């Protein structure tokens, strides 16, 4: 009987320890759960309300300049955000310049390593100087 009780206590301790390590990303990060709209890409202003970003527990997704996109989250803590490869739909943009902007945006997302949130502002940073600035999106 003591052996069974001891095993149950050990097993309960293991389960409790695992549960405490399995916090969802939203518990770690103040950036998730809000839809963001891109305002600046590497210090250059972007047309308002075009590019959207949503951060969930497992991925980031949104609307690029022409295409929908998604990238699984590799690392997500209170300051760090690193993504796996960005995948997107393959619609052609009406303008080559817009298509290039979208490709630059997706490439920038893949280089993100850290972020900071200040109220309604979110900035994603890459080690190479990449900077993506967002504002909380307003719904019409």
Order of helices and strands: HHEEEEEEEHEEE
* CATH fold-type name: Lipocalin
Q: Report the CATH architecture.
A: Beta Barrel
Q: Describe the largest sheet.
A: 10 strands, antiparallel
Q: What is the assembly state of the chains in this entry? A: single chain
Give the C-level CATH assignment.
Mainly Beta
Tell me what the structure shows.
- It is a single chain.
- The protein is of the alpha+beta class and 140 residues long.
- It has one domain (25-136): Lipocalin (Beta Barrel), CATH 2.40.128.
- It is built from 3 helices and 10 strands, in the order ααβββββββαβββ.
- It has helices at residues 2-21, 25-28, 96-110, and strands at residues 35-41, 44-45, 52-55, 59-63, 68-76, 81-83, 87-88, 112-118, 121-126, 131-136.
- Strands 1, 2, 3, 4, 5, 6, 7, 8, 9 and 10 form a 10-stranded antiparallel β-sheet that branches.
- The longest helix is centred in the first third of the chain and has 20 residues, at 2-21.
- It is globular, with a radius of gyration of 20 Å.
- 19% of the residues are buried.
- Residues 3-28 have low confidence and may be disordered.
């Amino acid at each position: 009987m003591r052996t069974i009780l001891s095993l149950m206590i050990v097993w309960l301790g293991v389960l409790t320890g695992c549960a405490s390590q399995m916090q969802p990303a939203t518990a770690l990060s103040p950036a998730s759960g809000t839809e963001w709209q891109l305002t600046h890409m590497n210090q250059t202003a972007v047309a308002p309300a075009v590019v959207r970003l949503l951060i969930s527990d497992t991925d980031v997704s949104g609307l690029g300049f022409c295409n929908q996109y998604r990238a699984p989250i590799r690392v997500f803590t209170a300051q760090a955000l690193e993504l796996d490869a960005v995948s997107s739909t393959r619609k052609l943009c009406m303008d080559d310049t817009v298509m290039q902007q979208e490709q630059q945006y997706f490439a920038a997302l893949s280089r993100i390593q850290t972020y900071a949130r200040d109220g309604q502002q979110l900035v994603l940073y890459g080690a190479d100087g990449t900077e993506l600035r967002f504002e909380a999106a307003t719904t019409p």
